[in-house]
């Protein structure tokens, strides 16, 4: 009886191993002939699949390029509030931007556009260029407010408070210094003051267009406005200074809240963001800014209306920073219901050459760029990680939150391991 029982058990034990042997033979045959052709066959299949994938992406880019040349039909007037900040931008203002804004106002209808510009202490002749823009807008009946501020960065930094606060923090250089992000947030909120004031008096707009110092076209703006059929909490363009690298890495986060895997196409770690990009469709992201942004104006109305901000000074002292242009999406309840989208078919440039390079006659990416980009992205995702960088920041945020009960920062995905302070001639990392 014991021998019989043992024999039955031995058979039971051998069965799983027999199954493993069969699977091994299927995947890695013992025949030397079949084994010799297995690796080349797999390699050929992978190569063929990746080439077909690149061809399909290129086809979709071609279709998107054709559609982008056609301005979407506007069934009824759309009221647009344009908000913009400028500092030492005389060259682009005179070369393109002023005429671009006037053309945009004509396209939407002068009566449907309001332009607010905040200039802050430029040392070139940006003020003179903006005075010319004001004259051009007035000539065609476009309501506008262009604030020319004599306060320079150096003036902002002249009289620090006796102790830290209101954007001033102690730095590793042993002194109180003014943070860059709260300064920019104040300027952006100032650019929205007329929007809120007009709403209180019964004059409202459909959208706010935040417009950087970029080269753009009227079709760019129309297509951005109609991103995802007009259903969004925010829609952003894609910006370039030195193509093929995109520019605004500080504000762009993929659908999972991660920074880019690579600065060239297809950029993202998140499969949701990457798959939409490959289809040339609106890309779901957690945050974006990237040169041009549309947001429904209603988000800024009322006592609970959105406002730009920086992270708390006490958190910034942990050597942590977050873009005001990312935090605005983190604070917006509609970001989590309507969504934030990057429109890859709307590309703007910080100089004329960059704009031209991303607006060729046909698709803006070649077959080789697409194929190599897809594989580079895979290798970055497979062999690199953002976990360590994100853990460092999360750890500092956690320490800050535990210092005082009730502390919380909603824009965790915006935070990076940096400290940015204002300088007389710009800003710096410290």
Automatic annotation (TrEMBL):
Keyword Glycosyltransferase among UniProt keywords: yes
InterPro entries the record matches: Mannosyltransferase_CMT1
GO MF: glycosyltransferase activity
Keyword Transferase: yes
Keyword entries, A-Z: Glycosyltransferase, Transferase
Any Pfam family matching the protein: CAP59_mtransfer
UniProt-recorded name of the protein: Cryptococcal mannosyltransferase 1-domain-containing protein
UniProt organism field: Diplogelasinospora grovesii
Classification of source organism: Eukaryota, Fungi, Dikarya, Ascomycota, Pezizomycotina
């Amino acid at each position: 009886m014991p021998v019989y029982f043992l024999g039955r058990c031995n058979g039971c034990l051998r069965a799983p191993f027999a199954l493993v042997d069969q699977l091994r033979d299927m995947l890695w045959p013992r025949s030397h002939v079949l084994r010799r052709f297995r690796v080349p066959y797999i390699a050929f299949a992978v190569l063929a699949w990746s080439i077909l994938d690149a061809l399909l992406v290129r086809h979709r880019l071609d279709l998107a390029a054709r559609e982008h040349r056609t301005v979407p039909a506007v069934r009824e007037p759309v009221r647009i509030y344009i908000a913009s900040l400028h500092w030492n931008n005389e060259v682009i203002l005179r070369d393109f931007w002023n005429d671009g804004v006037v053309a945009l106002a004509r396209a939407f209808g002068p009566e449907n556009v309001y332009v607010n510009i905040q200039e802050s202490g430029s040392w070139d002749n940006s003020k003179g260029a903006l005075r010319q823009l004001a004259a051009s807008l007035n000539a065609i009946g476009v309501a506008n407010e262009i604030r020319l501020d004599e306060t320079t960065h150096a003036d902002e930094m002249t009289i620090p408070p006796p102790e830290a606060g209101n954007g001033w923090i102690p730095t590793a250089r042993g002194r109180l210094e003014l943070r860059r992000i709260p300064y920019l947030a104040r300027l952006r909120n100032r650019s929205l003051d007329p929007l809120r004031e007009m709403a209180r008096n019964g004059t409202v707009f459909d959208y706010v267009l935040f417009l950087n110092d970029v080269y753009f076209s009227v079709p760019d703006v129309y297509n951005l406005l109609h991103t995802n059929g007009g259903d969004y909490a925010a829609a952003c363009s894609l910006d370039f200074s030195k193509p093929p690298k995109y520019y605004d890495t500080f504000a762009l986060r993929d659908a999972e809240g991660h920074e880019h895997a690579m600065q060239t196409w297809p950029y993202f770690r998140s499969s949701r963001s990457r798959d939409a990009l490959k289809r040339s469709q609106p890309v779901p992201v957690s945050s974006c800014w990237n040169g041009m942004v549309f947001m429904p104006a209603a988000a800024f109305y009322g006592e609970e209306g959105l406002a730009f901000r920086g992270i708390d000074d006490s958190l910034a002292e942990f050597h942590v920073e977050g873009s005001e242009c990312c935090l605005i999406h983190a604070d917006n309840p509609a970001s989590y219901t309507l969504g934030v989208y990057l429109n890859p078919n709307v590309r703007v440039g910080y100089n004329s050459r960059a704009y031209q390079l991303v607006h060729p006659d046909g698709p803006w990416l070649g077959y080789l760029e697409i194929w190599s980009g897809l594989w580079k992205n895979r290798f970055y995702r497979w062999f690199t990680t953002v976990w360590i960088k994100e853990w460092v920041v999360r750890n500092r945020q956690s320490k800050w939150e535990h210092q005082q009960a009730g502390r919380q920062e909603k824009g965790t995905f915006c935070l990076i391991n940096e400290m940015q302070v204002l300088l007389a001639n710009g800003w710096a990392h410290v």
